[in-house]
Write a structure and sequence with these properties.
3 copies of one chain form a homotrimer.
Chain A (H helix, E strand, L loop, with lengths): L1 E10 L5 E4 L1 H11 L3 E8 L4 E6 L3 H14 L18 H10 L2 E7 L2 E2 L6 E6 L5 E10 L1
Antiparallel strand pairs in A: 1-8, 2-7, 3-5, 3-8, 4-7, 5-6
Chain lengths: 139, 139, 139
């Protein structure tokens, strides 16, 4: 069995930001020399997500509006978590809807994707450095 | 390490449809001859889901009503994504709640399931053919 | 390839309860002697979740309030599923937001976690025994 583990770091200037990281993951898969296996990609932080969806700018604004409606940032006092001195309780909730991780099949040495699948890092409490783990296992 | 990769195709006549695909996955696991490992099942499209829940028709109607409330299809103009000519922005959102994929343990050559677990394909923007990937790795 | 499979049982006295099970999973990983691989943790029941987030009591109350808002337990008659004699349709919905499973990387024989990641069992229809599956594969 072959394995490879890599850590990517993201630091956004915005509180909310969706970043297409597909090419970063493609590089790790190429480096792994795994032809058949799986690739785990997960946020190592609990106020951000890894998810697969469409790389369309209008949809990304729809996601932001929708997540703010389902888990509003303001007023921050509506959340008990923010009594700890944080103001990011909403980001912990948003991350549950968007998910922590994805597991992608590797077939023939490549991410086995449908026509529109792209991997995104979803930042919901930015302006600080956060890490993403990429682990490939297979042969 | 043994691996097997299969692609299933679904074409629903309804925009919204939940389909129990457990027996399709059971067949792939049997064909793989893997006795200990994992089975990844994911939608290859970004307006549909794979998830595990209950095969109860009332609950499926509850899911539909609930998802329409959280991410309404109408009015389509509420979503920027639909300015691209699509009308399926809501399906991209619904799919985030229901999830892209599941990873199921294989133990003793079988899907290692609890008493009620069933695997579903969730279609939120149907009337077109979409693929589901099934990948088994193990030994 | 090494594999290990364990089953944990939880029986809460409350309908809604979040339990930190990280140390239970650490023990399984240690017992597996896997140094590089992955650990799948999933609820075997369809009204409970496994998810990774923060071990902060205020946030846990925020999660409960938020999930009750998005998928209210009462009135139970709003859900067709409850016509079967159940009263737990809301728990089937809550579980979709919080997720069935997590896949965690194992690196150097340990769960490869960020600084705040903790694994939780989320019970949304308690007062009965339910099982969680833990499967490690790797080498």
């Amino acid at each position: 069995m072959k394995t490879i583990t890599k850590y990517l770091t993201f630091h956004t200037e915005e509180r909310f930001k969706l970043i297409n990281i597909t090419q970063d993951i493609v590089k790790v898969v190429e480096e792994s020399n795994v032809s058949e296996g799986i690739c785990l990609v997960n946020s190592m932080h609990i106020t951000s997500s890894i998810f697969i969806n469409d790389d369309e700018s209008g949809l990304h604004l729809d996601f932001e509006k929708w997540l703010q409606k389902l888990a509003p940032h303001l007023p921050t006092k509506q959340y008990l978590h923010n009594d700890t001195g944080e103001d990011n309780a909403d980001a912990h909730l948003k991350r549950q809807i968007m998910g922590r991780e994805t597991v992608v099949a590797i077939t023939g040495g490549k991410l086995d994707f449908g026509p529109w699948e792209q991997i995104f890092y979803g930042e919901f409490d930015g302006c600080r450095s956060k890490k993403v783990l990429v682990k490939v296992i297979g042969e």
